[in-house]
Amino acid sequence: MDYGWRPYVPVAVRRANAEREMARLRKKGHAVSPVIVEGRAIARTFWGKSWCRNLERYSDFSNRLPRGRTYVRNGSVVDLQLSSGSAEASVAGSSLYKVKVRVAAVPKVRWQAICRECAGGINSIVELLQGRLSNAVMERICAEKTGLFPSPAEIEFSCSCPDWASMCKHVAAVLYGIGARLDERPELLFALRTVDEKDLITKAGRDLPLGRLAPAAGRVLEDATLSEMFGIEMAETSPTGVGSRASKGSARGTTEGAKRALRLVKKPAEGRKVRRRPE
Ligand SMILES: [Zn+2]
Q: 154 CA to middle of ligand 1, Å?
């Protein structure tokens, strides 16, 4: 019970009310995503546990968070949506409350430092997301205030309940709910912090990785353009043997549409280049 004067709403009734509301949202096409905690532990994986531990280590939060544990365990977080830099949730209390959490992006300099210091230590996204990391990398990622997890100053929250000025139990439940969600979808931590987890892999062993990404992307485009041009050039440069070359090579097994396109390409002997891709 929140306050003496507020009518007590039994859990079963709260749950039924919440379920009705969620059913309404589902009907409207909203992919309702409740936080389900099985057993006592709110989180079990490296990412989920590290998220919860991070919250608990700050004294600003530590005395308020316990109120959220029961709430998240008993399924009160009936919908949680995580996206880039924010979380939105519906929490079943005396009525259904809306909680919003904003998480600041990792400052660029800090993110670069994390990537630099973890360079070479993480071999793949799978290893990263499964939390199969060396102790040194884990420590760096979890470092207080300089790691990947947000400090209280980097978390803003609000709740539609009358009690949210200080962290209410609905907000606390949602903060824990994020930890539970990271067990299933650890990549959402990187979304919440507005950083790209691939940076931790691709930047391995390189000091100035940003400069490297652009040329690589450029090269892929060039290759595509080249292969597209290859077929056209072949058709264009052979005045008589076009048909046979095309049917031996690129046109073998292609559709009528592609053959038609090749025939069209043959035409502009008169000078105009026609760039047509086979359909
Ligand atoms: Zn609240």
A: 19
